[in-house]
Design a protein that fits this description.
By secondary structure, the protein is mainly alpha-helical. It has helices at 2-14, 17-38, 42-49, 62-65, 73-94, 96-125, 129-132, 140-153, 172-185, 189-209, 241-257, 280-301; strands spanning 158-161, 165-168, 211-215, 221-223. The radius of gyration is 26 Å and the shape is globular. The relative contact order is 0.08.
């Protein structure tokens, strides 16, 4: 009996600190909201806990606490199934401090943007429903932020959704953003609009501001992930890459000019980016993604088409060339010896 009673405590103790605090805050604040609502104090529950654009200026803590309030049991169950395991994985790679900063920034900045958008809509359209008829709550911004983080760390990893659908991790964020867009178009701006804000905020944080655990050769900490595989343009289909690239480069130039983003300390020995936190697995996933992208570019440009075969001087057919492993650079070709030459082993020492 003692073993059985200590098992839940051991499980809770095994959860990293930041994940444990965020999960506990979600459970406590959601249950407190249910208690107030069932006690006929729903107005107080809304004002104190969730983000209402017309009144939250007097309750500034709601820009953060609103994310820990799930207004229905179904939403609470879904959040507890998805967020704690994801944060537990990220916290073991990043540490408690960086995980807590990521959660706070993604939630708070997304809510601030939603708050400003509602006030802008009110000033343009004059409808009070934009101020008092919408209450932002839940962890949708954090959910999309976690998907963006997984896209950075393990982009080529395959997941199975609902036991039926299989998809790569890097395709999930834009699928969620597309779902948000559809819901906003049909009239459900609140709270689904925060998915789009959470995607943009979490990407900018991971791209430029997140402090990595390693240090680059130039000295000092490395901030963000400036690698090509995590570029902003890669979120979009190829046919709109040109305008997206122009827009992203212009925004980056202005942000750099006004010192809004940290200076990129690039480790040239690491191929232009510092190694991702998380060890060899994350690094292997990144290098695999870069190799696949380079191979796709060579195939698309037609550079991978082989040259026409030539017969050897003695009239014999040339040795069949074997394709080498795909990489970022072409491997040096190995010339096969003539058929009548002395037989020797040829070793490629590239």
């Amino acid at each position: 009996m003692a073993v059985l009673s200590s098992a839940p405590l051991q499980f809770v103790a095994s959860i990293p600190l930041a994940t444990r605090v965020i999960t506990a805050a979600t459970i406590v604040l959601s249950l407190f909201y249910y208690f107030l609502r069932w006690s006929d104090n729903e107005a107080a529950a809304l004002a104190w806990l969730v983000l209402i654009p017309g009144s939250s200026i007097f309750y500034p803590w709601t820009f953060l606490t609103s994310a820990f309030v799930e207004t229905t049991i179904i939403e609470l169950i879904f959040t507890l199934i998805t967020i704690p395991p994801s944060l537990r994985y990220l916290e073991r790679l990043w540490g408690a401090v960086e995980t807590a900063k990521f959660v706070a920034v993604t939630i708070t900045v997304s809510n601030i943007i939603a708050f400003g958008l509602n006030w802008l809509e009110y000033m343009v359209l004059g409808s009070p429903s934009f101020l008092y008829g919408q209450a932002y709550h839940g962890q949708m911004a954090l959910q999309i932020g976690v998907l963006v983080a997984f896209t950075q760390i393990i982009p080529e990893h395959h997941v199975q959704l609902f036991g039926v659908l299989k998809a790569r991790v890097k395709t999930l964020p834009m699928a969620y953003v597309t779902f948000s867009t559809v819901m906003c178009i049909i009239g459900f701006q609140c709270p689904f609009i925060v998915i789009q804000f959470g995607w943009l905020v979490s990407y900018i944080w991971l791209r430029f501001y997140k402090k990595n655990s390693g240090e680059v050769l130039s000295g000092g900490p490395a901030y963000g992930d400036r690698s090509e595989t995590f570029a902003f343009v890669n979120w979009f289909p190829p046919f709109i890459h040109v305008p997206i690239t122009l827009l992203a480069n212009t925004a980056h130039m202005l942000a750099s000019k006004f010192h809004l983003i940290p200076t990129a300390n690039i480790d040239v020995e690491a191929g232009g980016y510092s190694q991702l936190p998380g060890g060899a697995r994350a690094e292997a996933e990144r290098r695999r993604a870069m190799a696949l992208k380079a191979l796709d570019q060579r195939v698309a440009s037609g550079t991978s088409s082989p040259a026409p075969p030539q017969r050897a001087a003695n009239g014999s057919a040339p040795a069949a060339s074997r394709p080498g492993p795909s990489s970022l650079s072409e491997a040096p070709a190995v010339v096969a010896p003539p058929a009548d030459a002395t037989s020797k082993d040829v070793t490629d020492v590239s």
